[in-house]
Write a structure and sequence with these properties.
Elements (H helix, E strand, L loop, with lengths): L3 H7 L6 E5 L2 E8 L4 H11 L8 E3 L3 E4 L1 H11 L1 H7 L7 H15 L10 H37 L8 H13 L2 H23 L8 H39 L2 H7 L4 H39 L4 H11 L2 H27 L5 H33 L2
Parallel strand pairs: 2-3, 2-4
Antiparallel strand pairs: 1-2
Helix pairs in contact: 2-3, 3-4, 3-5, 4-5, 6-11, 6-13, 7-11, 8-9, 8-11, 9-11, 9-13, 9-14, 11-13, 13-14
Length: 382
């Protein structure tokens, strides 16, 4: 078996050398990553060949990095290395590096700190609340920008863009008319069936007429139309503007000196504010027609009696409450859809993510505002 001196002389021509000099191990040369393989072979051969009392001499050490420091710790141990560190011999950066590696290796395998599930849950809630607050802040700023642009161009007819406005009305209003009418008709029939089933136990099936008319004039007409447009039109706005951003068309618009909000957002917002009240009115009528059909076929309430009860018992204020919420819902749906389009990052995946986000946000805002409005109108007695 080779002696300690023979092993030392074997590596005497290597960069980064460890030698045995009496009772000390002399580390010399460059203990850096390019020489890691050769130095590791030396350390593997010499490891365990010296007694624990052997000291470490670092006077001839030229350069050292993290890889070399780890090999020195493996050779003599962290305690021996820390004892051999001398600020008069080593540069300050070398001293701190060797000390940090030795201390890190004495701590053993890293153990991640234990996580308090309560703190983690509260932290996640805080992150969600912060994200929602940031989202509301951005939405409020974009609403302000849209209103400022709208008020700027309204007194200037030359800046009105009729072609995009008419195209958006056709897309958001006329094309959505059949699905809104069909859906509200079916929901009206379902509400009439449920009302007849419940009220029959009290002998008050005649009040099914009031239930259908009241619910569709105040809530279901505008709510169903708004939710349909949120899923159908807000996603369309986001995809259109997002695709324009991906294709750098928005940059081209700005380069031409045009305002993207004036060109793309305002016509869509105005078109939605015109289309949704019309769709809400159609939804109210279709829902009441569906309820009247069920009343005529199941409850033996003819159409003339249905209309007479509606005229006698349902006040005009219920219709005004329902139709008055439509422009507000339309404005929010259009603004959210356009904003999410501007937030697209430049990839097809981003377009899909923001399209989904616009639908979710639009439906959430519509239901939230409708709930607040219902509470307000109830307290006001309207």
């Amino acid at each position: 078996m080779a002696t300690y001196s023979e092993l030392s002389s074997k590596y005497s021509n290597e960069r980064g050398i460890v030698e045995h000099n009496g009772s000390a191990l002399v580390v010399s040369g460059n203990w850096t990553l390019p020489y890691y393989a050769s130095i590791k072979r030396q350390v593997s051969d010499l490891h365990g060949k010296h007694s624990g009392a052997v000291k470490l001499d670092l006077n001839q050490l030229d350069r050292v990095d993290t890889a070399g420091a780890a090999l020195i710790v493996k050779l003599v141990g962290a305690e021996a290395l820390l004892a051999a560190l001398d600020s008069d011999v080593l540069a300050e950066e070398q001293l701190q590096l060797l000390k940090a590696v030795a201390q890190a290796m004495t701590q053993g395998t890293y153990q991640p700190p234990s996580i308090n599930p309560v703190r983690q849950f509260l932290a996640q809630i805080g992150q969600k609340v912060t994200a929602i607050a940031r989202l509301v802040w951005i939405l409020a700023g974009f609403i302000g920008q849209t209103l400022a642009t709208l008020f700027y161009i309204l007194p200037r007819p030359r800046r009105w863009r009729f072609t995009p406005f008419v195209a958006a009305v056709h897309d958001t209003g006329l094309n959505a008319l059949p699905i809104v009418a069909l859906l509200t008709f079916l929901v009206g029939a379902v509400v009439a069936f449920l009302g007849a089933t419940v009220l029959d136990d009290f002998g008050a099936t005649i009040y099914t007429v009031n239930l259908v008319a009241f619910s569709f004039l105040r809530e279901f007409g505008v709510l169903l139309a708004a939710i349909l447009l949120a899923g159908r039109t807000a996603s369309s706005f986001t995809a259109q503007i997002g695709s324009m951003k991906v294709n750098e068309e928005l940059d081209a618009i700005r380069t031409l000196g045009l305002n993207p909000v004036e060109l793309l957002v305002v016509p869509r917002v105005l078109a939605m504010m015109l289309s949704l009240p019309v769709l809400t009115f159609v939804g109210m009528i279709s829902g009441m027609v569906g309820g009247a059909m069920v009343c005529a076929l199941v409850l033996d309430i003819p159409l003339t009696q249905f209309m007479a009860i509606v005229e006698r018992d349902i006040a005009l204020k219920h219709f005004l409450v329902g139709i008055g919420k439509a422009p507000v819902f339309a404005f929010l749906i259009a603004v959210i859809g356009c904003l999410e389009g501007f937030k697209v990052a430049g990839s097809a995946q981003s377009v899909g993510e923001h399209t989904t986000s616009s639908v979710v946000q639009s439906i959430f805002m519509v239901i939230l505002l409708d709930s607040i409005a219902a509470l307000f109108f109830m307290e006001m007695g309207w």
